[in-house]
Amino acid sequence: MAIGTAPGKAILFGEHAVVYGQPAIAVPVHALLARARVETASRGEAGRLWIEAPDIGYSGWTELLEASQPPAAEPIAGLLLATRLTLKHLNAGQQPALQLELESELPLASGMGSSAAVSVAVVRAVAEHLGESLSPEVVSQLAFEVEQHYHGTPSGIDNTVIAYDAPIYFRRGRPPQVIEVLSAFGLVLADTGRPSPTRELVAGVRQRWEADRSGYQRVFSEIGGVVDQARRSIETGEIEQLGALMNQNQRLLAQLGVSSPELDAMVRAALAAGASGAKLSGAGGGGALIATGERANLHRLRSALLEAGAARAFVTEVGA
Ligand code: PMV
Q: Model-level pTM greater than 0.90?
């Protein structure tokens, strides 16, 4: 049996501005994994695929290779497209009936990279089933095609950080740069429990940008400046500066209109509990939030975020 896994992700700095060409920094999160298993099915005709995704209560047969459009229904559509693109990339001919099983610990539409993680896990499992191993670059590209199909005009940061499985400095359309983390630092990653519909939030920013291009451009450039300072801090081990940079980034994200009363309240709760910085992570509106501070205080921060209404919260380490 072939197994492919993929971590979740957190965007540390630069979301939204990254869509407009600014840099962003993201890290993999190993506390949450997506896992795909592929094997030859014990029954079924050649060319068919049995998909089993208990997290979303789905199981059923589908055509493995179909020239027509992939089905519109999420999230099976993503699994299926990732499978088909990988088979096509590897020039796999007619296959016996296959079985694909998917498990994901990543909450959907939560800013933690669920859709890209599922695609990466499936691409890896399908490739392994065929006895092939794909480079992170190719895995990322195949997952990006799935993201583009279902998520509008993504920057590509999610599939990239998840496929490379390393902290990255990302700029749209350029090869990602892996960031060397000089001193490890801790983060609390919390899920507000409210969905973060990336496509809608990105479209909202676009509409407001169209109405006020120079104002939004200024905010995007300022975010880019914060990202570059954060990169230097991470690479030189000056991690005590990251909190203030997160606060700055959060203020700029609020100016873009992508924070929310819940996110604002959770940011305040984290700061009141001693965080040096906190911000939304991902598309916003709801979704994920990150906070940082002294290592000894991270569990207290986690409790404060749960008390403030987070549905889930994890302590995670960057660069460990
Ligand atoms: O909501 P997520 O985790 O997919 O993050 C979206 C990040 C954005 O910068 C808002 C969009 C993008 O494609 O980069």
A: yes
